[in-house]
From TrEMBL:
Keyword Transmembrane helix on entry: yes
Coiled-coil parts of chain: none
UniProt key word Cell wall biogenesis/degradation: no
Sequence ranges assigned to domain CSD in this UniProt record: 2-72
Keywords annotated in UniProt: Membrane, Transmembrane, Transmembrane helix
Species, as recorded: Luteimonas viscosa
A GO molecular-function descriptor: nucleic acid binding
Protein name: DUF1294 domain-containing protein
Pfam family, one: DUF1294
Length: 226
């Protein structure tokens, strides 16, 4: 694997020296490697102590470290490398911030779901079978997510995403939200999240329509929890 280092103890008369990895990559006590002038590709000039180079490591028959594929690193390349590292750190920071916002959204949505379904029952807006129905499907959804996560960790047969979405669409989405938060499963896959939140909206819209049309009351008439 290519790495960056500096030449040290360079003996120009004999054409060899040593290269030590940059401390920012491998630590100040990183082992150095022997480098011969013949290992420097398209040098264009004589090497000098302190030169910054990119190289790879091989071991010789005695197990000693040798630098191969050595190439000088110019200032523009160093600036590009530094810029790429800054961009990578910025991207990682943005991902962490987006993850925190998504986690907060899931927690709020889960709490809101519990408050709405239980509160609606307590206020008499809908029968008790409604929160029980959602609780049952939420349990099924949570277990399905857990099964899929365990299967992924052990290389076993996965639960199709379409199955998870179908359960959530039917009303199990509060359990899906909880599973994503607690198990950290399917919480960062954008394509899955897009479909997941679509199922949430569709289920809520369908429930509102059924409630307005009186279908929920009709279905719950024969329920002992109505």
């Amino acid at each position: 694997m290519p790495q960056l280092g500096r030449l040290e103890q360079w003996d120009d008369a004999r054409g060899f020296g040593f290269v030590r990895p940059l401390a920012s990559q491998a630590g100040a006590d990183a082992p150095r490697a022997f480098v011969h002038v013949k290992a420097i590709e398209r040098a264009g000039r004589r090497p000098a102590e302190g030169d910054l180079v990119r190289y790879e490591i091989e071991r010789d028959a005695q197990g000693r470290l040798n630098a191969v594929g050595v190439a000088f690193v110019n200032a523009s390349a160093m600036r590009e490398l530094a810029r790429s590292r800054v961009d990578a750190k910025s991207a990682a920071r943005d991902r962490r911030e987006a993850g925190r916002r998504a986690a907060l959204l899931r927690r709020l949505a889960t709490a809101a779901a519990v408050a709405v379904f239980v509160g609606g029952w307590l206020l008499g807006t809908w029968p008790g079978v409604v929160p029980l129905f959602y609780a049952a499907l939420a349990t099924v959804s949570f277990l399905a997510y857990r099964h899929d996560k365990v299967a992924a960790e052990h290389g076993r047969w996965r639960t199709p995403e379409s199955t998870l979405h179908a359960i959530d669409l039917a009303g199990g989405w509060p359990g899906g939200l909880l599973a994503q938060q607690v198990l950290r499963h399917k919480s960062s896959k954008r394509s899955f999240q897009l479909v997941f939140w679509t199922t949430v909206l569709l289920n809520c819209a369908a429930f509102a329509w059924l409630l307005r049309e009186g279908v929920v009351a009709q279905l719950a008439q024969s329920s002992p929890w109505a």
